[in-house]
Write a structure and sequence with these properties.
4 helices; flat
Length: about 120
């Protein structure tokens, strides 16, 4: 017996189109418009978004270390070793945060392709 794919995917496609944003009269944000998260995508907003990304990444690393410490239920002999390791990671994360903030776009100047993908010091 041969399957008729039109019978299977036809209704699925129709349902998908019926519930798409286009069918509800919604239009995607145009270039320079406000996206659903409230960013205007101007040069100043892009710089602010970059700074927020740097800070969030740093905070997520700290949260992961705190979670790991709680999850491991460290013994007294293990605690100093974990603290030393955690402090090393925090120091490295702080250095990455400083580098990340140094790469914040300035005055609407577009970075070159190398500056975008490679950390040039």
């Amino acid at each position: 017996m041969r399957l008729n794919w039109k019978l299977i995917f036809g209704p699925t496609m129709a349902i998908g189109l019926a519930f798409s944003p286009i069918s509800f009269g919604q239009t995607p944000p145009a270039g320079g418009g406000v996206d659903p998260h409230g960013w205007n995508h101007g040069a100043a907003d892009m710089a602010e978004m970059h700074k927020k990304m740097c800070a969030d990444h740093f905070a997520q690393g700290a949260a992961r270390r705190a979670y790991l410490e709680a999850k491991l239920e460290l013994t007294s002999p293990q605690k100093p070793l974990f603290d030393k390791w955690s402090q090393f990671l925090a120091t490295m994360a702080q250095a990455r945060k400083v580098n990340c903030l140094a790469d914040t776009p300035k005055d609407g100047v577009q970075p070159t392709i190398l500056e975008h993908y490679v950390n040039i010091e």
